[in-house]
Amino acid sequence: MYYNFFNKKRGSHCKLWINDENFGRDFYTNDKSNPLLTIAWNKNKDQSIEIDGVFYHFKRNTVICLMVNQTFHFEDASEIIAWQFNRDFYCIESHDKEVSCVGFLFYGTAQAMFIEVESEIERKLDLLLKICQEEFLDVDDIQEDMLRMLFKRLIILVTRLAKKQYVSHELPDHKLNIIREYNLLVEKNYKTEHSVKFYAEILNKSPKTLSNIFKIYGDITPSSIIQQRILLEAKRLLLYTSKSSKEIAYELGFEDISYFSNFFKRLSGLAPSSFKHKNLVKSN
């Protein structure tokens, strides 16, 4: 089953899915016109989740945050609880001081972030879920404000938990904020700007300073953030559209198709055409 709220005048939209076997998302086909961020909670049993053609182990009592432009399906969606919302309902970028999730939970690295739910957080999520259900049914002039408050609370809970599990104590908030700003800038500019220098100048940092900050965060570099984001989009376009490798190369800022092909093969192990063929065979 699912609950749906839509304010036609404002365009604000949110959903709550509870153990619905039809839950999933196909961005490039059915869902492109409905840009919803997703927070999915696998409450009861281990299963798999497919995100943009890649399968991951989705442990029980684990949360994952999914982007608007991701295609995803669950092994058993009837075990999933999910909250979805669009920018008009709650803009996480303009409200980042409230929730601090941009460039971390959402618009972060290309790697999937699975967040284990601790017992105390599980209790809070269960309570929040119950109140959300009630508010979706309670139609009045303040319904949207009440739902927005609950979704904001959800985002804060998940962000706190993710920071506890993924961010080193050696990385202070002001340095994590630089990483988050960098990730968001990459998300907005990766199709045209491929050098760390471009982003470093906007942040008033040197490329070396950025590299040192990322070393504290984990085994990832500023340049790899850019490369992995480009690779992810290239894979999506190869998997879910009929665009040629040449069209994709130009869309992603490569003037030379051979350079794009070498870039793709170096990072993925396959040429773009081989990657597409392999996945077409797999889907058939």
UniProtKB/TrEMBL annotation:
What's one GO MF term for it?
A: sequence-specific DNA binding
Q: Which SMART domains match?
A: HTH_ARAC
Q: Which SUPFAM superfamilies match?
A: Homeodomain-like
Q: Name one Pfam family in it.
A: HTH_18
Top-level taxonomic group: Bacteria
Q: Which PROSITE patterns match?
A: HTH_ARAC_FAMILY_2 (PS01124)
Q: Which UniProt keywords apply?
A: DNA-binding, Transcription, Transcription regulation
* The UniProt record lists the keyword Hydrolase: no
Q: Where would I find the HTH araC/xylS-type domain in this sequence?
A: 180-278
The record ties this protein, via InterPro entries, to: Homeodomain-like_sf, HTH_AraC, Tscrpt_reg_AraC-type_HTH
Protein name according to UniProt: Transcriptional regulator, AraC family
